[in-house]
Structure formats: C-alpha cells, structure tokens
Amino acid sequence: MEKKSCDKCVRWLCGILFAAFAFCWLYFFQRELLWAENRFLFSEGNGLRIWMFNHHFVVSLALTVIALLLAIPGRLVLRFKKGLYACNYLLSAAFLGVITGYDGESVFGQSLTVWIVSGSFLFVLFLICKIVASVPKSEYNDRPRTLAGNLLILSLLFAITSYLGNTDENLHRRLRMEQLYNEGEYERLLDLGRFEEESDPGIDLLRAKALLQMPPKPNPAGSQIGEFLFCFNISDPKALSKSLKEIDNDQAYLASCLLDGDLKTLADTINLDSYKILPSYYMQALVIVNDSTARAKFPQHFAEEESLYNSFCEKLEPLEFEPRQFQANSTFIDYHQTYYWFYTFRN
C-alpha cells in the first residue's frame, strides 16, 4: 500500500511541476511569439484570431492541458515508473518546444541542426532511462533517489523545450514592439529595451518609426527623431538610413543624413525657420560643420552644444595615437549618446 502511495505521489509531483513549467513557458515567456503565430496563421479580422489574441490566458491553459495529455500515451508506451517516471513527458516537452519555434517567417522555424540535436538528445535520454530501468535496485534510500531522478529528468526536458523553442531575446522584443506600434503605444515601445546593448535592424526601424509618430510639440511633426535617435543602440546605421530614405518624410530624410554622416546635405536641407527649439542631434551636427545660420538663430543652444563638442575633442586629444576602439571605449560613458561620438566612431 505504501509503495502504491509513493508511486502516486511521484506521478502528482511530475504532473504539477511540468504543468507549472508549461504554463509559465507559454503565458509569460512566449506571449509575444504566440501572438505573432496567431497573426501568421489567421487572416485579419478572423474571429478565432481575435478571440485567441484577447484570451491569451485561456490559450496558454489549453496548450498546457494538451501537453499534459500527451503524457498519457507516453506512460502507456514508454512505461517508466518511480525515479524515471518523468521520462513519460518526452512527447509533452517536445510538443512545447515545437509549437514555440516561430522565427518570424515560419511556424516551425527550427533549423535542421536543432531538429537533429533535439531528436538525438531525446532518443539518447530514452535509451539511458530504459537501461537504468532494467538494472535491479535496492530499497535503500528509495524515496530520495526517486525524487532526485525525476527532478533531473524534468530539468533535462525543460532544457530541450527551451532549445527547441525560440528564445531569441531580440525577436521577442521586436514582436512586442510591433504590437505596441500597431496599438499606437509609442512611448511604451521606446521604453522597451531602452538600455539594452543588443538590437537588430527591425528594432532600429521600429524605434525610428515610433519617434516619427511622437507628438511634435512646438516643432514639425516627426522631429522627435532628431532629439532621441541616438539615445538607443543602433545595430546597423546603414540599413536604418536606407529604410528611412524609403519613408516619405522630411524628418526621416534628415535622420538618414545623420546616420550617413552627410552633414553638408543636412545643413543644406534643414529649414531652421520651422523650428522653435532645434532638436539636439540636428544642432550637434550643425555645430560640427560650424553652421553660421544655426549659430545666429539659436545662439544659446548652439553655444551649449559647442561647449559639449569642445569637451569631447579635449577628451580625445590625448588619445590621438591610441587604437580607434580604445578611443571609442574611453569616451563611451560620457559621450555615447551624443552625435559627436556617433559621427566620430560610426560603423
């Protein structure tokens, strides 16, 4: 009787731990990816698509239940017991990883290498557990060994789920940003990953487009891009510049000139009369070329930015014969959010 009770406890423990992992994996860690899969699979206005988007909790719960049900055929076919009982969740773990492999282009975005490694790992794990199950065991310290064995197998299954599923941080951030952009939540979009060092061209463009949509205050619409563009890490300035040139917007074009370092074109193109307060990065660019019109129209702002530029040059002066990367690193903390630093060390 005690033995049956112990087996029942093992089944419940494995079920609860796996259910908790599955739900957290789907509800918290793969939220944006499941939304993107939903948009990919169903057309705009589809009733099921709308319902699934508005009921993420229910969708996550339903998928968790399906994953748990897959343990039933696993138990009937694999027949692992006690310390190896968790191995019955092989199919369940694979299911969770497979359905969260979306890479932005395909629902099953796993590479051939990922499929081979995952399949080989699960097969080897199955063989090892079968071998271990066939070896006679003593009853000494049975419960601790049973608990440790199941926890080890569950940990391995959670790892293979993570390996099969898409855990690309930039992809998840970009998917979340796309959702916020579609909802018009531009400030929240810009706050997302603001201080992260990693980015990608898709994230760069979404941030730039959000800045173009921000309230202009006393300046022309879209001019916030000239105030905040270099507050964020830009992974590929050339790609971003090319994308901005394709947008029919004067501010987007000026921003592309900044990214290209084409300050002559910027100075010739910008209409200073349309600004009550010139965005900082435009002013910094004009300070570099010593634009007399900007100096006359915005004397105080020009003087402030010129002072900052002089301090940057003074910081660089003793590093003149140092490697370029050393110069960039030495001035990064104080100046990396200025256009002076970007213009000097741009890719």
What's the gist of this structure?
Helix content is 69%, strand content 0%. By secondary structure, the chain is mainly alpha-helical.
Give your account of this protein's structure.
There is one protein chain. With 347 residues, this protein is an all-alpha fold. It contains 20 helices and no strands. Helix 9 packs parallel to helix 11, helix 14 packs antiparallel against helix 15 and helix 19 packs antiparallel against helix 20. The chain is elongated, with a radius of gyration of 28 Å. The model has no long low-confidence stretch (mean pLDDT 92).
What tags apply to this protein structure?
mainly alpha
Kindly provide the radius of gyration, computed on alpha-carbon positions and rounded to a whole number of angstroms.
28 Å
Termini gap = 71 Å
Low-pLDDT runs: none
| Shape verdict | elongated
The largest pleated sheet is described as:
none
- The run of helices and strands is HHHHHHHHHHHHHHHHHHHH
So how many helices?
Answer: 20
Helix/strand/pairing class, anyone? mainly alpha
Number of strands: 0
What is the percentage of strand-forming residues? under 5%
Average of pLDDT: 92
Topology diagram in text:
Layout: H1 2-29, H2 31-41, H3 47-54, H4 56-69, H5 71-78, H6 90-99, H7 112-134, H8 142-164, H9 169-182, H10 186-191, H11 201-213, H12 225-228, H13 237-245, H14 250-260, H15 263-269, H16 280-288, H17 292-297, H18 299-316, H19 324-335, H20 339-345
Helix pairs in contact: 1-4, 1-8, 2-9, 4-6, 6-8, 7-8, 9-11, 11-13, 13-14, 14-15, 16-18, 19-20
